[in-house]
Amino acid sequence: MAVNSRYRGSVETRIRTFSYSIMYNKLTSLLLILIFILSCNPDKQTKVDPNEITFATDDASVLFFKNVRQLYYEMEEMEAAKLKIFRHKKRDQSQDEPIINLAIVENWRFDEAYLLLEPNAVISSLNEFTIKWEGETGTGEILYRQGNKSDQVAFADQIYGCIQQGCTFSIQVNDIWDTFLGSEKSREAFRVTMFDYYRLVKRI
Fold first, then answer.
1. How far is CA 27 from CA 13, 68, 117, 196, in A?
2. Nearest alpha carbon to residue 145 among 160, 168, 126
């Protein structure tokens, strides 16, 4: 029995459309998987200009953080101040050795984000201290002083740059040098938080 050419053409069109739909869905899925993988493993080599400190966010950077990166953080909401504070879930919360954890502070009223340094109990009472770094290019010192939001970022920038170079750290507390950011856990939490902060304020 002959098949109506119009019907046959309609079937072929539907088959082609279905095939294209499958290909599109596969490509979309692969793209989403790639984005997810990249977002879960922030780049360890991207350099940041220490002279370009900024606190401004925009809708795109905030949306990316909330949709992709926020699940890796604990959130504290300060309703009176209209601030949200994000702390990495895998940060080192030990009180046995000197540690500085980082928190990202979102000030949504002014479209800004800040970096909050949170020394643990071992060094929280110190107004200033010195961190010594050692790497393939030599050695150096980074001085920490309690200061404004720019000072906090400038200090963290230097530590981040040294982590990228594979440097080891020691910290001077009461005239005694002790290991600082000695564990992979503490280094990685510091590095990832910095990377997420840089992306939030569009420094990368």
1. 21, 20, 42, 27
2. 126
Q: Of 138, 122, 137, which is closest to residue 172 (Cα–Cα)?
A: 122
Q: Name the nearest CA neighbour of 43 among 136, 163, 134.
A: 163
What CA–CA distance (Å, rounded) separates 197 from 204?
Answer: 9
Taking all residues of the chain, what is their mean pLDDT, rounded to a whole number? Answer: 86
Assign 3-state DSSP to the chain and report helix, strand, coil percentages, each to 5: 40, 25, 30
Strand partners, 54: none
pTM higher than 0.90, yes or no? no
User: Going by DSSP bridges, is the β-strand pair 73-78/100-107 parallel, antiparallel, or unpaired?
Assistant: unpaired
pLDDT (0 to 100) of residue 43: 64
Distance of alpha carbon 2 from alpha carbon 61, whole angstroms: 60
